[in-house]
Protein: DUF4296 domain-containing protein
Amino acid sequence: MKRLILILIAISIFPVSVSGEAVSSKAYKKRVELLVYLRAIEPIVRNYKGEVPGGGQSQQNPGGTTAANNQQAGVPEQDGDRVKKYKELKRLYQEGLQYFFENNHVNAYRRFLEAQLGTEMLLEELSQYYVERTEEILKAAIEKRIRTIRKTEI
Structure:
């Protein structure tokens, strides 16, 4: 009976001890995953910059000129809060890369995890903005349709 219990304990412990993974391989996988995410969200962040300090949404400046007109005039475009968060994520990623190539995989993995957490928060903020903006567009379309129906009834 004691042998059976020892065998069962050994069998249950064996898969746990075999499934360990080196920090270097975790850091490598996280590095690749983050690179894919950062590349994918960059155009989204550039299109929806967020609030510009000292002004409203960055899509339209207070003077009525668009950001494209400012670029043609030589005025540098200000970064919104989402762009600043994205740049901070890139900085964390680059620090992680530096640690990774110095073979300091523990600190690299830690930086990659910090960048991943920030990326998740940024993606959540962007998705919430998309939902709110879609709701506004749908409400405006419904109101416009109702007005056109009422005009045709008169």
